[in-house]
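User: Just a sanity check before I run the rest of the batch. Below are the structure tokens for the first item. I only need the designed sequence back.
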């Protein structure tokens, strides 16, 4: 089940510097709420700048759904401190509003909590971004789009690819590097269920969130309006979360970059009977960007994505065509409710270890059927991960092995990796301490973040617990001074973001209809 990486680890033990300079970026989503826990109905605060062009503070699906973006960095402490500075600055500009500290939104009665789609001004690109969200709302419901998460962007240093794979430079080694990241992605699909096991934190929803949804899941009732599954880890990643069953029909695999790009472009051009029923326009108003399986490549809901920084008006796919895979984006991390910034150092270090391991381990080619089979293991962990003795499939023949035994084999490799990464990190024991702590949770599910959060959820109820944490984090962040970024820097970016938005609006020469026709497959 676990690939043999002994040779690769032995090589790294003699070349630890190859891993020096891992780069990371974090994106955290957070709902703005009122004092009573209801969804904030105010527009994105102008004092935070333009959501369309701000480097660090933007919005996701709705006006009330903030997204914080850190610059890419090779220092864990600095990255987390910058993320904390963004939180500190934002909380000072929200008045009495708070940040909801969980992935699953709290809706007691969704009929009285209107969801305003994110607004990006009157430029064509801004209007198109809002229209894209109209399409998401009409396709999947607004409630589903209000689910929040953490996106972890990860890249290995060029030094690694030079010493490990014989690459001379990024340009000539583009294919080798891309294949390396695709290997990482295939291993992530096979073993990434370990992340919701340790860090899942979305086991409960409100009764109103389930209204109108058909499910065979046997929810239990908790305090107030809480509905939960007693052994679950991350409903956000399951069938009632951020999923699209129609996308299972798409033959998109991660064996070859050209095939991936071709398959994704086909999905963007493939008509959908279901979405054609919604229609493109009604009463002269657009309902979605198009009626295809995917409006844009961003609509492909996967737990991990290959990425490259775009240039100019490039689409994500165009950037991959130009330069290959530059980094990967992990999308299966719930908001950590026990952290005021939604993620902590322990999680970052474990992700580093696991993603490096995924890069080193051989990953056989996967067809679409095998890719779907990996979903069975993910679903078991998502729905029953905290059940002692949980069994997972180890091959397509039906053989099974316990989650704990698979995890222990994995940790034998992770411990060796931890020593290497600690050697690069001033010789401290930070990565090894993460291994020592988490490996115990394989035999004792009650030690996981997932279990600790579920116990709190059942004890207090979703609304009460959320407000306790939101109020505490608000007070803490308000008292703390900025450490890396300054108020002046944030204020400067706020002003410049409005200038950039106005420049986009002033340079538009096409009507919106003509703009959409020219940009049939949007580039953002």
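Assistant: Here's the designed sequence for the first item:
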């Amino acid at each position: 089940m676990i690939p043999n990486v002994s040779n690769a680890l032995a090589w790294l033990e003699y070349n630890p510097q190859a891993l020096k300079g891992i780069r990371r970026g974090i994106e955290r989503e957070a709902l703005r709420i009122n004092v009573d826990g209801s969804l904030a109905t105010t527009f994105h605060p102008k004092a935070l700048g333009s959501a369309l062009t701000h480097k660090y503070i933007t919005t996701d699906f709705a006006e009330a759904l903030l997204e914080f973006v850190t610059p890419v960095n090779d220092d864990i402490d600095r990255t987390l401190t910058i993320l904390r500075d963004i939180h500190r600055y934002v909380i000072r500009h929200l008045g009495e509003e708070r940040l909801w500290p969980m992935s699953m939104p709290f809706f007691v009665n969704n009929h009285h909590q209107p969801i305003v789609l994110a607004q990006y001004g009157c430029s064509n690109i801004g209007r198109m971004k809002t229209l894209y969200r109209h399409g998401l709302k009409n396709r999947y419901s607004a409630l589903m789009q209000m689910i929040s998460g953490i996106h972890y962007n990860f890249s290995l240093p060029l030094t690694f690819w030079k010493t490990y794979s014989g690459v001379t430079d990024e340009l000539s080694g583009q294919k080798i590097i891309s294949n390396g990241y695709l290997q990482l992605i295939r291993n992530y699909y096979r073993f990434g269920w370990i992340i919701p096991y340790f860090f899942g934190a979305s086991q409960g929803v409100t009764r109103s969130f389930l209204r109108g949804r058909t499910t065979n899941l046997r929810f239990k009732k908790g305090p107030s309006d809480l509905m939960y599954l007693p052994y679950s880890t991350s409903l956000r990643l399951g069938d009632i979360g951020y999923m699209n069953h129609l996308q299972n029909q798409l033959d998109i695999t991660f064996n070859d970059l050209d095939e991936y790009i071709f398959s994704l472009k086909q999905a963007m051009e493939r008509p959908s009977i279901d979405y054609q029923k919604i229609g493109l326009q009604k009463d002269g108003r657009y309902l979605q960007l198009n009626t295809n399986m995917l409006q844009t490549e961003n609509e492909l809901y996967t737990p991990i994505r290959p990425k490259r920084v775009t240039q100019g008006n490039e689409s994500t796919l165009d950037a991959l065509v130009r330069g290959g895979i530059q980094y990967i984006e992990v999308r299966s991390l719930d908001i950590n409710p026990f952290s005021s910034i939604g993620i902590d150092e322990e999680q970052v270090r474990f992700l580093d270890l696991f993603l490096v391991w995924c890069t080193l381990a051989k990953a056989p080619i996967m067809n679409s059927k095998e890719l779907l089979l990996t979903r069975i293991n993910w679903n078991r962990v998502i729905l029953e991960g905290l059940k002692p003795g949980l069994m997972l499939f180890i091959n397509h023949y039906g053989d099974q092995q316990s989650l704990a035994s698979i995890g222990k084999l994995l940790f034998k490799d992770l411990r060796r990796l931890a020593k290497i990464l600690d050697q690069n990190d001033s010789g401290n024991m930070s990565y090894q301490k993460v291994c020592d702590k988490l490996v115990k949770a394989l035999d004792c599910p009650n030690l996981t973040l997932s279990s600790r959060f579920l116990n709190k959820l059942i004890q207090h109820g979703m609304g009460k617990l959320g407000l306790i944490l939101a109020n505490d984090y608000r007070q803490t962040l308000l008292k703390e001074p900025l450490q890396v970024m300054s108020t002046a820097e944030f204020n400067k970016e706020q002003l410049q973001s409005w200038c950039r938005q106005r420049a986009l609006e002033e340079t538009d020469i096409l009507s919106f209809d003509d703009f959409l026709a020219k940009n049939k497959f949007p580039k953002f």
